[in-house]
Each structure stands twice: as structure tokens, then as C-alpha cells.
Amino acid sequence: MPADLLVCDLEHRPPLAYVTARGTLDPLTATVLRQSVLKALTGEPAAVLVDLAGVTVADPVALTVFLSLSRAAAAWPGAQIVIHSAAPAVARDLDSFAIVRHTAVAAGLAEAEALAARQEGAVQVGWDVHGLAGGLAGGLAGGLAQSRDVVRAFCRRHGREALTGHAELVITELVVNAFRHGAAPVTAWVSIRGRYLHLAVRDRAPSLPRLPAPAGSVGGLMIVEALTVAWGATRTADGKTVWCTLRP
């Protein structure tokens, strides 16, 4: 393996995702690690366990990638990142850069799995968005009504009535965006972890959404950005997931 190469293997073993990194971590190869962990998050695991046993850190600044990854995991899907099996020198760098204050660090895999098991799991409901082949005037209306009904019932069932109005509006915009700019089939999720309500819609088109220019019409993702504390889009093996987080 070339000295400047970092390789990450990903395995999903629900409810956990496992990322095993091998090679040299520096500010350039940190992008590989970031993409691998974000890809792991698209499976909505309870936690992502990152194995650093085979990693040599060329520039400790690269470890700060875990700060942004921890924020992304907390925002969607409300998961936890646990670093484990780091060499002593890497463990010292994690401590000196205060990574341990924001991301759990374990000595080995067994301890990492134990830390993940202690985290309270998310309450989640997923559904297939039906009827999108019928066009805006027909099929989309059915998919939107279905999605709003699921979100409304979920919020009421779990004591989040105060978020119902915003959550219905946001899921509407996410589904419309998937219909107009994505590709079927479309699936959606609503979940709760702690104080946060998470919404996500996955479609089979790889192109990521972008906010319109300031001179553009107000709507769509601009509404999502205005009503949520965080939102984003992540490519998956068969398309992309657009997600967002609301809180009381």
C-alpha cells in the first residue's frame, strides 16, 4: 500500500456499522475517512465504530475530521461515533486535540460495542412513498398525503405535537424534491432520538440537491433550511438521502 493511501472498509451489522481504516491519515486522505463514515450513516445505525488499528497519522490535524463527523452523526440519524483500537501515539493525538470530548474512544472493539450498546436507540418508522409515477396532478398527491399522515401520527404518538406543523411541511418539501429532481423508488423515515426529530427521504438519483440562488423563488429546500436546525444530503450506493433535524 502506498504511504499516502488510506483505505476504508465498511460493514453493516445492524444495529451497528463498522468502518475499518488502513493506511496514512493526513488532511488529504481524511476525505476518504469522512466519506466512508457518512456512507455508514446512510444505513441509520445506532453507532458507527471506527477501527484505527491500522492507521498511521502523518498530520494530527487530520484527526479533527472526527469533530465534523460527530456533528453530522448527531444531526442525522442521531447516531454515535466510537473510535477504537488506535495506536498509543494516535490515542495521544486524539486527546491533545480534544477529540475525546466530542467522540467516544475505546481501547478495543469489545469496549466500543459496549459503549454503543449503552446508547438509547432511536424510535423510527419508515415507509415507501407510493404513487409517484402518476405525476404532480395525480400520483404525487397520494404520496404527499401518505407522508404527512405518517409524520403527523408519529409526532402525536411520541409527544411531539408541537413539531407536527413544521414536520409535515418539511416532509412535503423533501418528497416533492425527490419527485422533481430524483428517481423512483422513494423511501422515507421519521425518527426520534433524545430531543430531536429526524426526517429523511431517499431516492435513486445520485445528484445532490442545492439551494437556489438568492434571486430564485423561495420554496423547497429554502423552507427546509428555515425550519430545521440541520439538513444535508448524502450519496448512497444506489442514489442519495436528503435528511434534516428538528427540535422543540
From TrEMBL:
InterPro entries: Anti-sigma-factor_SerPK (IPR050267), HATPase_C_sf (IPR036890), MlaB-like_STAS (IPR058548), STAS_dom (IPR002645), STAS_dom_sf (IPR036513). Residues 6-116 form the STAS domain. Pfam families: STAS_2. This is STAS domain-containing protein. It comes from Dactylosporangium maewongense.
